[in-house]
Amino acid sequence: MEAVPKRPLDRHVHGSQHTQTTFQAHPRVAEGAGMTTAGKAPGLAQANLIAIPKDWAYDFLLFTHRNPKPCPVLDVLDAGETVSALKPDADVRTHAPRYRIWEHGELVAEPENATEHWRDDLVTFLIGCSFTFETALTNAGVPLRHVEQGRNVAMFVTDIQCRPAGRLHGPMVVSMRWVPESLVDIAHKVTALMPSVHGAPVGAGDPKMLGIDDVHAPDFGDAVEPEPGDVPMFWACGVTPQAVLMKSKPPFAITHAPGQMFVTDMPDFAYRVG
Amino acid sequence: MEAVPKRPLDRHVHGSQHTQTTFQAHPRVAEGAGMTTAGKAPGLAQANLIAIPKDWAYDFLLFTHRNPKPCPVLDVLDAGETVSALKPDADVRTHAPRYRIWEHGELVAEPENATEHWRDDLVTFLIGCSFTFETALTNAGVPLRHVEQGRNVAMFVTDIQCRPAGRLHGPMVVSMRWVPESLVDIAHKVTALMPSVHGAPVGAGDPKMLGIDDVHAPDFGDAVEPEPGDVPMFWACGVTPQAVLMKSKPPFAITHAPGQMFVTDMPDFAYRVG
């Protein structure tokens, strides 16, 4: 498996090159392929993580309500709390494989352990992740090309602007999966039943309708190769808060690294309706 | 149609009689039967409403996240805002048929127009209402006894405690519908697909499992008569915030009156998944 060339993270986001530079300072992550929890915890719900100062927590919680497709909230901890009811034996500062530390919208570090960056005024949010519906897709006969190829899912910043909330604004991020054309309908149906982990896709077919120029050059995660007859399907993605951090520049935040999720103890079935 | 005798609103809530007294001061509402938007706006989503001072908004928003069954949020306005995107031509202070004004957990007035009680620090929340799935139930062949009888739905305070958030805590309220036993499964299936308007029922059959002593003596709304072979089904209810107000006693709040909802312009189908 070869490393996938990275494009600037901020291609659509703030148009400068510094994030690229920051990334080159973290070669292990910049290596790209394979650094993911996708396919590693079948049957369990996985979560995006963002911890933000209490002073920004209302704006963020409001943002999630106004943008439920990319930001379905699974849990909110009290300020300073480090254990979620969704994974009682784990510390939210260490359980994800890798974290990102943000200052004023800039990515400043990507540690495996976020404890030394912790502050007691941080409010941690766990947000649904589309990896949670991948077991259901598999059970329905939908192949997962990124898992087959041992890669992270491909994620893209779209030209869809989220609905702002207080000081927070920014574009929606989506994950992309190659799906055989004959299975697009079933993939839609299976995921629509799991709205807490992003639900139905926001688009399928033409990446340009989401403002995505090149489906082989993701903004986050890995490029994934299609099989003949595959079409791209796009789901709202819990990396959206990271695009919002870049745009809105709160003074401090901690997130997981894209694709390197907080794996919960919750069965994926708990997030299925009907 | 005869008026339904009221039991103290606070039967399970704070154990005193004053709410009963307050109710007697509002005879038009105390008349009970028929004062409802149930069945009056088929195909449109209806919403519960609560406006609470900005200082309490984070606690409330967190409460809704921690209790998504009774409190699925459809919209959150900014402080002082009086128009929701879900009903752009209406004022949230006048569009519901009747409001409740709360001070320190006490019901102090029930006006048809809440404008004179408005404060610019109020943050308005619109919360999903189970009336929204009633058209889907009808379409699936499930009769609605309360609509047939021209009554409000029956609502009960349960012994299920919600998950607290900040200063807010209190019991879950449920709505009850009589459903022919042969249609219980389809009623479950239809409503499970609409999680934003309370989703699947929280119980069916024995009211005692929810701490409800007498299914003919609701805490809010009207008593509804079953037909032979009907069993009671219970759904989490957006009147829960009112039970929480009684218990948690924030200094001020405005809500709709139970069953007299804020009718939106949104098609009910918008809140259906799958």
UniProtKB/TrEMBL annotation, chains A, B:
Stored Gene3D superfamilies: PSTPO5379-like (3.40.1640.10), PSTPO5379-like domain (3.30.2040.10)
InterPro entries xref list: D-Glu_cyclase, Putative_hydro-lyase, UPF0317
Bias kind Basic and acidic residues: ranges: 1-13
EC number(s) given by UniProt: 4.2.1.-
Class in the EC hierarchy, top level: lyase
Record keywords, A-Z: Lyase
Chain intervals for the UniProt region annotation (Disordered): 1-28
Signal peptide: none
SUPFAM superfamilies, A to Z: PSTPO5379-like
GO molecular function, one term: lyase activity
NCBIfam families: PRK05463.1
Similarity comment: family membership: Belongs to the D-glutamate cyclase family.
Protein known as: Putative hydro-lyase BBK82_23150
Originating species: Lentzea guizhouensis
